[in-house]
TrEMBL record:
Its EC number is 2.7.7.77. Residues 7-157 form the MobA-like NTP transferase domain. PANTHER family: MOLYBDENUM COFACTOR GUANYLYLTRANSFERASE (PTHR19136). InterPro entries: MobA-like_NTP_Trfase, Molybde_CF_guanTrfase, Nucleotide-diphossugar_trans. GO terms for molecular function: molybdenum cofactor guanylyltransferase activity. GTP binds at residues 10-12, 23, 51, 69, 99. This is Molybdenum cofactor guanylyltransferase. It comes from Shewanella jiangmenensis. The keyword Protein transport does not apply. Mg(2+) binds at residue 99. The N-terminal domain determines nucleotide recognition and specific binding, while the C-terminal domain determines the specific binding to the target protein.
């Protein structure tokens, strides 16, 4: 029996540096940023879920499963992950942000291989220098642990996964893999880089 792997795209933030625009819906080279993320990960997973706290009807164009955080108050990515783990029936859940339009097309197989090799509960992507805490593959059974961490007032994802058996997979061979777009200037810069 093959494992079922779903993905959640986190689009629930307030995007203050983007002037409050919903980052997943900001256009990059003619299409919303979330479409770029979906294009990269769709072939790698069974179902894509979207965590969004606003514009849910627009996000519903991309997924049958669009949901907000369980807790109101924009508590950050962990809140979206906790909600997603309650919505999936998958054996493993890929977590990615909506503002990473150049995600690796081999993200899932490499994270899964790292997870298996280390017999880990969580596999986190790295750009070769820094871990990317919002790009990970994890077991949905960790939901209670993450919820307790969030309920205790904690917000830092890497502090949470440090409590578990974690594998780190480097994508240093793909230098732009985790470029994330937070400001209108960065949209412009990435547009130029990708269209040269």
């Amino acid at each position: 029996m093959s494992l079922r792997i779903d993905a959640v795209i986190l689009a629930g933030g307030q995007a203050r540096r983007m002037g409050g625009q919903d980052k997943g819906l900001v256009e990059l080279i003619g299409k919303p940023m979330i479409e770029h993320a979906i294009d990269r990960i769709r072939p790698q997973v069974k179902e894509i879920l979207i965590n969004a706290n606003r514009n849910q009807s627009r996000y519903a164009l991309y997924s049958d499963t669009v949901f907000g955080d369980d807790d109101s108050g924009f508590l950050g990515p962990l809140a979206g992950m906790v909600a997603a783990m309650g919505k999936t029936q998958a054996d493993l859940l890929l977590v990615v942000p909506c503002d990473c339009p150049c995600l690796p097309t081999d993200l899932v197989p490499r994270l899964k291989a790292a997870m298996d090799a280390a017999d880990a509960d969580v596999a986190v992507a790295s750009d070769g220098e820094y871990e990317q805490p919002v790009v990970m593959l994890l077991k949905p059974s960790l939901r209670d642990s993450m919820k307790a961490f969030l309920d205790a007032g904690e917000r830092k994802i890497d502090f949470w996964y440090a409590k578990h058996k974690v594998a780190v997979e480097s994508f240093a061979d793909q230098p732009n893999a985790f470029v994330n777009v937070n400001t209108p200037e960065q949209v412009e810069q990435l547009t130029q880089a990708l269209t040269q």
